[in-house]
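Box 3.1 A note on notation
Throughout this textbook, protein chains are presented in two layers. The first layer is the amino acid sequence; the second is a token string describing backbone geometry. Keep the layers aligned when reading.
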Amino acid sequence: MAKAKRSKKRAAGARSAKKAGGRVRAAAGARKTRIRPLGEKILIKRLQAEETTRGGIVLPDTAKEKPQKGTVMAVGDGRLLDDGTRAPFQVKVGDTVLFASYAGTEIKVDGEEMMLMDESEVLAVLT
């Protein structure tokens, strides 16, 4: 009996979508989240960990080390100086950077792992 009620509700929902011109709104979580770091913060997406060693041995997920390299996805406004101006960043969006293993804060954005850190925690820009 409960199955019949559920199927009627689903059918009613489909009919209401047809009445609305055939458009069905996506769930609120389906849209892409945009992040804009504040101040001297930068948003970094880690590069993928290597899955095999140089000798060809396949590594399981538990044995992989998190890489200390990543791509800059977004930058903030810059560090506020004493005279009220903003210092320009030394990195730009798209740069591949090297950072310390315990640097920054790990966050998840739309299912992807990202790092939010100060520009001073970046050790080098890889060219």
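Confidence is low (pLDDT under 50) at residues 12-27. The chain has one domain: 28-126.
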